[in-house]
Amino acid sequence: MSNQSIGLSDRLYEYLLANSVRELDILTKLRQETSKHPLVEMQISPEQGQLMGLLVQLIGAKKCLEVGVFTGYSSLVVALNLPDDGRLIACDISDEFTSIARKYWQAAGVSNKIDLHIAPALETLDRLLANGEAGSFDFAFIDADKNNYAAYYDRCFQLVRQGGLILVDNVLWYGRVADPTMDQDQRTQAIKQINHQIYHDDRVQISLIPIGDGLTIARKK
User: What count of Cα atoms within 13 Å lies in the side-chain half-sphere of residue 94?
Assistant: First the structure.
């Protein structure tokens, strides 16, 4: 939930973009359209998207999972980096937000790779588990309602294969997780809880990267 990496001066952030991000025109157009949305802060940053695309390619992912779509930047990045027979199951509850996503998936020629489920994500994840898809996903990205992060992580851990990746977004939460003087509301507490949980989960190797609003990468052992 940050459309640029936090904690950087504007000058340094512009340098980072100019010297590292190779954004396709279709991604730029989607980001520009979303910049006019009242909830623009829900979009991931382009540098984070580029990292996610690289990770998808590095592990040779073919079957991916996304919890939280919004206008579709992250799902578009993932789909663009999947092979022709790759598949992304995308979970969201909003027809309104994902209507923008579907438009850009179609324009980019990747809509055939994306299976969008408009329903509470836990229902979709539990259905995948019930259908025998545990351990069959290569990559999962969690970026949805914070109060359910622990439940999403639990389901994604079951669904991802050994050696697969689980990415958890917004783990720095604009610095609120480390500042007791800031509002410690339910969402902040939920993020602190999942950070603690993943840190102490010896079933995964982890790295928390200060990109976007903080991104934890967990590799299932």
Answer: 14
